[in-house]
Specification:
Blueprint: E1 2-7, H1 13-22, E2 35-38, E3 43-48, H2 50-59, E4 64-68, H3 69-75, E5 80-84, E6 90-97, E7 111-114, H4 117-126, E8 132-135, E9 151-156, H5 160-164, E10 167-177, E11 179-183, H6 191-208, E12 209-217, H7 221-227, E13 235-238, E14 244-252, H8 256-265, E15 269-274
Parallel strand pairs: 1-3, 1-4, 7-8, 7-9
Antiparallel strand pairs: 2-3, 4-11, 5-11, 6-9, 6-10, 12-14, 12-15, 13-14
Helix pairs in contact: 3-4
Bound molecules: adenosine-5'-triphosphate (ATP), 1-O-pyrophosphono-5-O-phosphono-alpha-D-ribofuranose and magnesium ion.
């Protein structure tokens, strides 16, 4: 039976559980459940703290787990990224009081508050910058105002928390992070894991594409299918009116409005967009 670690709390937990549910696995019913047996899929899910998941995977007590790239690297564990999952995207950055620092060299000799000491020390060591780290569990943004540190290194998504604390990012980003499925070399070839990966990829693809249907005059078909070439090739079906055909094609969700405009321009009508639930491409 495949053993998978899933975040039990924090920003990673809900999207990870939704992704698994959409991929056809049993969803967690209550927030207090620690272990969940999914007999139909031959998988056991363990709900653990996101920061601890790399440790369990590294020890081989579970076959794989979902955590953040930043947490994986900070754990220093010998687990590897198997599949990026596209949610909980953030950057990991240095930030200091507005106007105080502009360059990485400004960090030398200063105190950096962070929850990710290993990640920060490795970054500084690579660049030969000497500075002290102050470990804090959370709310790192408050540390500068409270006099515990001169700058911070923390997760930034919208930047709202930084602004509220009177801080601004500076220097190059330390890391671009997102949720990732991790495993070890010993388990990377597990058949159950390959099934999980295929299903997760199916959900992610379905989320990033939509299905587009439209009718177009036969003599404009070549123009329309250039706009929506699909994955393999668009489906073209006859209509009762022999001068028109119906076309169905997958298109990237991000492009859908532009493509609808372009199709209309070349004469397509009745352009419909619908959601995909899952797919195997
Ligand atoms: N605002 C955010 N946007 C995107 N990802 C985030 C955000 N905050 C934290 N993360 C990601 O979540 C993971 C950290 O999870 P963790 O549960 O330790 O902290 P959290 O989500 O901040 O929850 P909490 O602090 O409430 O326990 C990291 O991978 C981090 O990059
Ligand atoms: O750029 P933003 O959109 O503001 O998001 C980033 C903030 O979100 C997380 O904090 P969280 O709320 O989890 O609190 P914590 O610091 O106690 O972990 C993270 O640690 C940052 O502080
Ligand atoms: Mg947090």
């Amino acid at each position: 039976m495949l053993r998978i670690a899933v975040p039990n709390k924090g920003s990673l937990s809900d999207p990870a559980i939704s992704l698994l549910r959409e991929a056809g696995y049993r969803a967690r019913r209550t927030g207090r459940e620690l272990v969940l047996l999914d007999e139909a899929n031959d998988v056991e899910f363990f709900f653990l703290r996101p920061r601890d998941i790399a440790v369990y995977v590294g020890q081989g007590t579970v076959h794989a787990g979902i955590t953040g790239r930043d947490l994986l690297l900070d754990s220093g564990v010998e687990a590897t990224e198997h599949l990026p999952l596209g949610f909980a995207r953030s950057t990991f950055r240095f930030a200091a009081p507005v106007g105080a620092m502009s360059d990485l060299t400004d960090i030398a000799g200063k105190r950096i508050a962070t929850s990710y000491d290993v990640l920060v020390r490795a970054f500084l060591a690579e660049r030969g910058i000497e500075a002290a780290t102050v470990h804090l569990d959370g709310a790192v943004e408050s540390s500068v105002r409270l006099g515990v540190a001169d700058l911070i290194a923390d997760v930034v998504e919208t930047g709202t928390t930084l602004r509220a604390a009177g801080l601004e990012v500076f220097g190059e980003p330390i890391l671009a992070s997102e949720a990732v499925l991790i495993t070890t070399e010993a388990f990377a070839g597990e058949p159950g894991l390959a099934t999980l990966v295929r299903r997760l990829e199916g959900v992610m693809r379905a989320r990033s594409y939509v299905l587009m249907d439209y009718d177009v005059p036969m003599n404009r078909l070549h123009l329309a299918t250039e706009i929506t070439p699909g994955i393999q090739s668009p489906t073209v079906s006859p209509l009762q009116n022999p001068d028109w055909v119906a076309v169905r094609s997958m298109v990237p969700r991000a492009d859908m409005n532009r493509l609808m405009d372009e199709l209309y321009e070349v004469g397509a009508r009745a352009i419909l967009v619908s959601e995909l639930l899952a797919c195997r491409l």
